[in-house]
Amino acid sequence: MPRRERNKFVKRGQILELKIEDYAFGGKGIARIRSEKGEFVVFVPNTLPGQTVKAQVKKSSKKYAECKLMDVLIPSEDEVEVPYQDIPGAPYIQLPIELQHKYKKESTLSLFQRIGKVENIEDVFDEFVSSPNLFHYRNKMEYGFSAIGYDRENKTDIDEFTLGFKRRGTWWMGDNLEKDSGLFDKQVEDSIRVIRTYCEDTGLQPWHGPRREGFFRYFVVRKSYKTNELLFNLVTTSDGLSSFDLNAFSTLLKDIFEERFAGLLHTINDETGDRTIATSGSITLVSGKDKIVEELLGLNFEISMKSFFQTNPKSAEKLYSKVIDYALEKREAIDNTVVMDLFCGTGTIGQILASRSENTKIIGVDIVASAIEDAKKNAKRNHIEGLEFYAADVGKFLYQHPEYKNKIRTIILDPARAGIVPKTLSKIIALNADRIVYVSCNPATQARDTVELVNNGYQLKKISLVDQFPHTAHIETVVLFEKG
Ligand SMILES: C[S@@+](CC[C@H](N)C(=O)[O-])C[C@H]1O[C@@H](n2cnc3c(N)ncnc32)[C@H](O)[C@@H]1O
């Protein structure tokens, strides 16, 4: 054994049985191994206090180890029965929502204290906003086909035509979805079994991960809460396509979902990597239409299979309302001014803000060109004027447009999970805005950026937490920063 490994309490790859005692930010359960040498801390994501779990060591140092959850052996006493199939995407579904909120609130605020150095975090805490729908809140789901399934009774893998989600902690094994998971659409999930049987009866093979071969790969569904319509995308390889009848598959979906069926798309994905994105590859329309319309705060947004759209639209309305409330608190910093909506995606926040303010010009910037195209189209559809959208890296855009320095009073920030790179944050700070409303889907990077903003004269005035994804460890934050 290498010396580096010898000094460690547990070894990489080792399988441990652990009792979870605490909860850390991001859904990491904390277990402690006590011995004559002292206390050794083990983190296991997607677990909660009271559970006894089986976990594999992924990273180990002298003081602590990071593990991957393999199985929950004994549930926590806090957990309750739910009528849904358990899936890796909802590790906390059996925990009452009030407890989920408590863990999320406490761990997020302590993160701002620890990393963000905000000592008065309890004083500036504004509101914990719950998701309006606690179940069936998602508007998109990706189901995977697999030739290797999971035998729940014997807890082992089996050769089986599978359609559902990956088995927790594995990349090669699927787990059949037999009924509603409680996260997406009940009718769709209760029908997955029928769709699976239809595909299996064609004689074509599901994807075999280790062998990197097979025909059926993914079945993706998008839903509109406005119209209740469903848009489908079947992802296959090209191998065997000539013997598969896409129109007959579309008829099956129309028979099941009737007027809810909006359209079927087909994607050919011949990538063989384990981490291929479900929908990469060429996409064609088989029948119906290729877009559905969703409504957010009275505005309409057209969504195609590939475009980014908030996954929990009802909760997104709450999130956006909070952003708009913070922004409009000081109307003089909004009306008759130029507002920057940086990392704007499809421009939703800017459009809502423009529609609720007087003579405000919005500059939206996002690096994804197709999102900017959608933003422009959506603004036109909603008859909102005064918006300019640019497809660019935020840092580069600000470098190329020094004319905005000292001209912007309010900035909206909504970066991706990785947060804002330091150089770009400096350029944002150099704009010298009075107010910044910073939305984040990763409070850990936002807490880091808070230090920089505070060092440059901003104060954290308010923070709200929005629970966009009940039953997961995710939490979104809306933070209001003001100068001086
Ligand atoms: C959380 S999303 C923003 C969503 C948007 N505000 C909305 O509500 O629809 C983060 C966005 O940051 C964009 N992005 C990531 N890195 C970027 C960069 N360096 N410059 C500009 N945009 C970037 C992504 O394309 C993505 O649309």
Automatic annotation (TrEMBL):
Does the record bear Transcription in its keywords?
A: no
State the EC number(s). Answer: 2.1.1.190
Organism field:
Pseudotenacibaculum haliotis
Domain TRAM, first and last residues per copy:
9-71
The similarity comment for this entry is: Belongs to the class I-like SAM-binding methyltransferase superfamily. RNA M5U methyltransferase family.
Citing just one GO molecular function, the answer is:
methyltransferase activity
Statement: the UniProt record of this protein carries the keyword Acyltransferase: no
The protein in question is named 23S rRNA (Uracil(1939)-C(5))-methyltransferase RlmD
Q: Where on this chain does S-adenosyl-L-methionine bind?
A: 310, 343, 366, 414
Domain of life, source organism:
Bacteria
The entry's active site is 441
What are the UniProt keywords, alphabetically? Methyltransferase, S-adenosyl-L-methionine, Transferase
Gene Ontology biological process terms, A to Z: methylation
